[in-house]
Amino acid sequence: MEIADLIRPEGVVPNLRATSKKQALQELARRAAGRTGVAERRIFEVLIERERLGTTGVGNGVAIPHGKLPELNRLTALFARLEAPVDFDAIDEQPVDLICVLLAPEGAGADHLKALARISRVLRDRTICEKLRGTESADAIYAILTQANTSRAA
After folding, report:
1. Which of 22, 24, 115, 118 is nearest to 68 (CA)?
2. pTM (two decimals)
3. Catalytic site residue 112?
């Protein structure tokens, strides 16, 4: 599974304005609604419910909020770099500035887990994260994400 299969260039937000975890998730749910046709509130509720189970702030300024929606027919992801880091209750207690939202169909099972693993693998790489933080352009961010994916084995 390739990052390009999950994130489209229009799914990259280079400078998302948010002052809290909730606001970041609301804004990403709004943008995901426009890409998926699923109601913004429904997406937000799924993401918040997942956060109640435990934070998706995985450390090093990265969060990977995710959830399953029966209304979806394919895996979809959005990537955002925040203008300023926000508290995300991350496992390392550091604020988050890189967020990749993954939405999956209800029956995605193994594909959902493979996609999470792929995203996690790319965003665990500190060099890639520094490149993502150092660019202003959505196209450049997309290129970093997709090139990072192809330079590593699955």
Report:
1. 115
2. 0.92
3. no
In the chain, the amino acid numbered 5 is D
User: What type of residue is 126?
Assistant: R
Reported as type and span, the H/E element at residue 12 is strand 7-16
The CATH architecture to which 3-149 belongs is: 3-Layer(aba) Sandwich (3.40)
- The number of beta carbons lying within 10 Å of the beta carbon of residue 74 is 12
> One digit per residue, pLDDT tens: the chain, 154 residues?
788 889 999 999 999 999 999 999 999 999 999 999 999 999 999 999 999 999 999 999 999 999 999 999 899 999 999 999 999 999 999 999 999 999 999 988 788 889 999 999 999 999 999 999 999 899 999 999 998 644 444 4
DSSP 8-state assignment for residue 19 = S
In angstroms, the CA 143 to CA 68 distance is: 27
What residue spans define the domains of the chain? 3-149
Q: Catalytic: which of 66, 81, 112, 118?
A: 66
Contact 97, 84 (CB under 8 A): yes
